Amino acid sequence: MPEQKETFLNPQVRQLFDYESWTYSYLVFDPQSLDAVSIDPVLEQHPRDLKLIRELGLKLIYVLETHLHTDHQSGAEKLAETTEAQTAIGRGTGSTTASVLLEDGQELSFGAFSIKALATPGHTPGCMSFQLEGMLFCGDTLFIRSCGRTDFQQGDPRVLYQSIHEKIFRLPPETLVYPGHDYNGIMVSTIGEELRWNTSVGHGISEQDFVEKMKKLHFPDSNSIEEERTLPLSHHAGLHV
């Protein structure tokens, strides 16, 4: 009788959308153990997220935040309270209530997998991206064909450029890019695509050109869903500073 080979199961991803803030949240889980992590949940979507977690029979281990948000209220604390998961966010955010303050390169385990925190500041000082099995969840650092703004909340265009080019763009080109927002209805990209087609920060754009371009951008101080609101970091954080 031939020996049966063990089937390798990839982590499963559910991409969730909040129409009010154009925010993508993610539920990632091990299909065997059903251990899961949530990334950037939105407070108003708590019933939907919790319903999906229960329908899939998942055990939420961590609720991860890529950064402190100003365009929506974070659902991290509410989701953690309901599921007994731990909250985690970059140490550079100054959060005083997160269960885990992440360092660059730190890994968190759930089931058979580990998700790696990569410090990618620039949009805000404490931004983190999360790398897992050929996928990158990059919050507001890198968008599809664009990138996060740097004109408030201690943003720095030079630092953002370095985060993208020296860390994100050095990942394998087939790495899937899952952003924190998209305003054109695109759900996923790859590192290779963004290197080639991202006219904001992709291949051929120098650091100095990027810095000058970002400094010339003028975003309106409005409550429009197209742009993040210029409010104090702690106002919508959910993970207090």
Concise description?
With about 240 residues, this protein is of the alpha/beta class.
Estimate what percentage of residues fall within beta strands. Answer: 25-35%
Structural class: alpha/beta
| CATH topology group | Metallo-beta-lactamase, Chain A
Tell me the Rg in angstroms. Answer: 18 Å
Task: Explain how this protein is built.
- By secondary structure, this protein is an alpha/beta fold.
- It has a single domain (12-216), classed as Metallo-beta-lactamase, Chain A (4-Layer Sandwich), CATH 3.60.15.10.
- Helix content is 20%, strand content 25%.
- A six-stranded mixed sheet has the order 1-2-3-4-5-6, with helices on one face. Strands 7-8-9-10-13-14 form a six-stranded mixed sheet. Strands 11-12 form a two-stranded antiparallel ribbon.
- Helix 3 (157-168) crosses helix 5.
- The longest helix has 12 residues, at 157-168.
- The termini are far apart.
Structural key phrases:
241 residues; alpha/beta; Metallo-beta-lactamase, Chain A; 6-stranded mixed beta sheet; 14 strands; 25% strand
Summarize the SSE layout with pairings.
Blueprint: E1 12-18, E2 23-29, E3 35-39, H1 46-55, E4 59-64, H2 76-83, E5 86-90, E6 100-102, E7 107-110, E8 113-119, E9 128-132, E10 135-137, E11 142-143, E12 146-147, H3 157-168, E13 176-178, E14 189-190, H4 191-197, H5 207-216
Parallel strand pairs: 3-4, 4-5, 5-6, 10-13
Antiparallel strand pairs: 1-2, 2-3, 7-8, 8-9, 9-10, 11-12, 13-14
